[in-house]
Design goal:
Layout: E1 4-8, H1 12-23, E2 27-31, E3 43-45, E4 58-60, E5 66-67, H2 72-77, E6 81-82, E7 87-88, E8 93-95, E9 98-102, E10 109-112, H3 119-125, H4 136-150, H5 154-161, H6 166-169, H7 177-191, H8 200-212, E11 222-225, H9 229-243, E12 247-249, E13 254-259, E14 266-271, E15 274-276, E16 280-283, H10 290-293, H11 296-301, H12 303-306, E17 312-314, E18 317-323, E19 332-336, E20 343-347, E21 369-375, H13 394-409, E22 421-426, E23 430-432, E24 437-439, E25 443-445, E26 464-466, H14 480-496, H15 517-528, H16 535-539
Helix pairs in contact: 1-14, 4-8
């Protein structure tokens, strides 16, 4: 009999595990509680309004973003056929070249994403796009802090930096008001997380990865998709896996993983109130769902499972505006630095392949452009509506988002007007509630001290493994990349204890400049001896000299 695996959850982690396992000869079934696969990454046909119709436009939880440090996800995508072109879905990744950094109180900037060519430009690249708005000492200090991360050993990052908030690590209370505003912008645009709660380890590492992504002249700094996510990636993935033998079940919610009498193995998964038998089980549901599926007995059998419930989530959901006129704005993403709701956006049609997904031929032909916006702060009152987004009706959310965008874009002439909005759709995972909206798909956030609560893919239960973005990964940040890496780790765990002989799937390390390896090695010795980081060494790397910070 083939070795059977039940994958509980059809997001990126679950689909990745299924992909790696079926390629190695396992009999795989994927159970998804919803009606579509892909988790928060999926796009969905619009069901109401002008954007709907016989061949509807798509809406989404939020736009997809593939920075240069992603390694696992592009490799997986390169193994998924895309029949319309005869290539793979990786061919549907297209590069951006700019980022719009818009402000209400300061100058609008367009950041060039091309790599630096000189050592001076390299040091400059460590400085944020908003450096011109800050006092020089703040810019120097932030650069020093980033170099502190870059020269710290892994153990110091995990045990010292993860216990610190990003706010504390960058000494925000002692910096300028502009510095504090921009630091908040960075964290909320990346992870929907206030800097006072964000892990310094995660924020420092990922911020560096984003900056270092600009240094490789052979690769674009970031990619996006050339069409709606499900059309150009998820649906072809499902079709390919089904052709290889994966069985897919939708509307199949798991309620329990039933431990056997000895408490060492899962005897069955309860899906739609019916027992499902398999040799192995891969749990790939979100962090807020996992504790409801893992019984008290299972959590006692492996204490790391009990700690999943301590992880935090936040809201980071999107709204799409379908425009009567295309509005490219910039050849990349847009960051609205003074928006109360921490808005980021992208004008998508300029990047989409009309042969694959022609906006003009779908839904209402009056639609010419798509502006996809993500709201990362749902707790701060708006500038027009004096209440947070989570307490607003969908109509109020739409009105407030347009107002905040207009405050940034229309300072020197109207670029975005109400007249351009032909239709709009709020993330379908947001449902009207008694007060405002409720969120069925919150985002895992990397808070200070959260690393110790994140489990490994392998568990203390013999035939249970985990494949979701809360698993400990090299990628770290809760993201599609981390979920993909977790799915690979889960597949390797299942493979290791099976009788199937096949090569494990590749798990990549984050890459950082090798020039800093000697300093990391030196720091590892210092950390083992209980000594602090040698801050003076990194200050000497800065052309402007010391920052006035006390010596460690």
């Amino acid at each position: 009999m083939p070795h059977s695996v039940a994958v509980i959850g059809g997001g990126i982690g679950g689909l990745t595990a299924a992909h790696e396992l079926v390629e190695r000869g396992f009999d795989v079934t994927v159970y998804e509680a919803g009606d579509r696969f892909g988790g928060k990454a999926r796009s969905m046909p619009v069901t109401e309004g002008p954007a709907a119709g016989e061949d509807p436009l798509h809406c989404e939880h939020g736009f997809r973003f593939f920075p240069a440090f992603y390694q696992h996800l592009p490799e997986t995508m390169a193994r998924i056929p895309f029949e319309p072109t005869g290539g793979t879905v990786a061919d549907n990744l297209v590069s951006t070249s700019e980022t719009l950094v818009a402000a209400v109180d300061g100058p609008e900037q367009v950041a060039d994403l091309s790599p630096p060519k000189t050592p001076g430009q390299w040091i400059q690249s460590l400085q944020p796009a908003f450096a011109d708005e800050l006092p020089p000492e703040d810019v120097t200090f932030l650069t020093e802090r980033l170099l502190y991360v870059l020269t710290s050993c892994e153990q110091r990052r995990a045990e010292e930096l993860d216990e610190q908030s990003w706010w504390e690590f960058v000494d925000a209370e002692e910096r300028s008001p502009a510095f504090r505003r921009r630091i908040a912008t960075i964290t909320q645009a990346l992870v929907a997380l206030r800097p006072r709660r964000a892990s310094a380890r995660t924020m420092g590492t990922i911020y560096l990865q984003l900056l270092l992504g600009q240094l490789d002249p052979t690769e674009p700094t970031e990619h996006i998709l050339n069409g709606p996510t499900s059309t150009v990636w998820i649906d072809p993935w499902i079709e390919s896996l089904a052709e290889q033998g994966v069985d897919f079940r939708t509307g199949a919610a798991a309620s329990d993983l039933r431990l056997g009498q000895r408490g060492r193995r899962i005897d069955a998964a309860i899906v739609d109130r019916e027992p499902i038998d398999a040799d192995d089980y891969v749990l790939a549901v979100p962090a807020e769902v996992a504790p409801n599926v893992l019984s008290d007995r299972a959590q006692r059998a492996d204490p790391q499972l009990a700690r999943i419930g301590r992880l935090d989530t936040a809201w980071m959901n999107g709204i799409q505006f379908y425009l009567s006129e295309d509005l490219p704005l910039v050849a990349g993403h847009q960051v609205y630095t003074d928006s109360a709701w921490a808005l980021t956006a992208i004008s998508q049609r300029q990047f989409w392949n009309d042969e694959v997904f022609d906006v003009g031929a779908r839904g209402d032909p009056a639609v010419e452009g798509v502006l996809s916006v993500i709201i990362s702060d749902w707790s701060t009152p708006g500038s027009r509506v004096d209440k947070p987004a989570r307490e607003c009706t969908p109509e109020e959310i739409k009105t407030e988002v347009l107002a905040q965008l207009g405050d940034h874009l229309n300072r020197e002439g109207e670029r975005l007007s109400e007249d351009l909005i032909h239709d709009w759709v709020l993330d379908p995972e947001l449902e009207p509630a008694e007060v405002g909206v409720e969120n069925n798909a919150p985002l895992l956030i990397n808070t200070a001290g959260s690393l110790k609560n994140r489990p490994d893919a392998a568990t203390g239960i013999e035939n249970l493994t985990l494949a979701a973005d809360y698993v400990r990964t090299n990628s770290d940040l809760a993201s599609m990349e981390s979920a993909n890496e977790a799915g690979r780790r889960a597949a390797n765990d299942v493979l290791e204890r099976s009788d199937i002989r096949a090569a494990p799937t590749t798990v990549y390390e984050l890459t950082e400049p090798g020039v800093f390896d000697p300093l990391k090695l030196h720091d590892r010795m210092r950390y083992r001896l209980g000594r602090p980081h040698q801050g003076d060494a990194i200050r000497r790397l800065l052309p402007s000299g010391p920052t006035g910070r006390p010596a460690d």
